Amino acid sequence: MKRCARFWAQGPRRSYGTGALFERADSAGRVSWYGKWRHNGTQVKRKIGPKRAEGSREGLTRRAAEAELRRLIGEVKPVAAASEALSVAEVGRRYLAHLERAGRKHSTRVAVESTLRVHLEPFFGDGAMGAITHEDVIDLMTVMEGKDISPKTIRNHLGTLSALFNYAKAPRRRWATQNPCEGIELPAVPEHEGFRYLELDELDVLIANVQAGPYEALDRVLYRTAAMTGLRSGELIALRWRDVDWAASAIRVRSNYVCGEFGTPKSKRSSRSVPMADQVAGELERYYQAGGEPAESELVFPSPKSGGPLDKSAALRRMRRALYAAGLDERHRFHDLRHTFGTAMAAAGVPMRTLQEWMGHRDIQTTQRYAD
Fold it and tell me: Helix crossing, 216-229 with 335-347: angle to 10°?
């Protein structure tokens, strides 16, 4: 894994109370001076300025950085009492418990836990959350950009950090006095970033190149259903035969499978009814009969090997093998089959409000992408 060029270098041992001066390099190799010290039991950390390179007149020498450090130590006030100086990890633990008590979805809690464990806790360490500054958040963003994390994902991670600060600075907690994420200039997300879809003739070629084996029949019907109903992968995995309404030519979305658990759909709008085209109905009926007409409570697309829910990662690997065999772009994700449905329906003139209902979008602006 590509790592950011980040290091710590401290000078001679300093007397107690005078803090520590150290260097840190960002992913582009730019070295800056940083200082840290303790104030009333709270650790404070500040970026002091860029380090002067040998032979240059720009940046700070060690002596100038020392002077600025002493000035900052004299100015900075404690942000919390020692008993309240909690780290990002500790506040994160309490925040996750808060989300669970509030009834937030398991998938939401998993996403927050992952952001904390992978990005926030390693970067901020054991220092008090209340001592984190606007500049620290910018440094975090720079590190993530250096790891080639997409702008949209960076925005999501910083959104989690901002929510954590809003939780921490609530009046009855006061583990932080401000939210340093406010006013951060977030990385721009390119229009339709990652927005790919298949033309309908490409869908036919993909299905024709599904590899032989125990998953062959399932994958053929799965790809067709995904691309002609717009269901999300978790909704397809959780689909049961009772959700297929043959008489009404509709598929009813009632559950979802995310992070290894069955649950309710993504949002209230995600519980919906989607029209079932004759071609999808015909393939589902043949698949149903070939499977021995399973009970209504059984999954439509169970794993042929385990009988349980499909493995999303394995399903994507099989799809990419079929894409390669078909001579199509292997960068396509399974989610692009959902985009295929949205794009085809918009091209056919389906009103955006109707398409919003069919796709279960909370916001009409999300649906509008297909018209654009």
Answer: 40
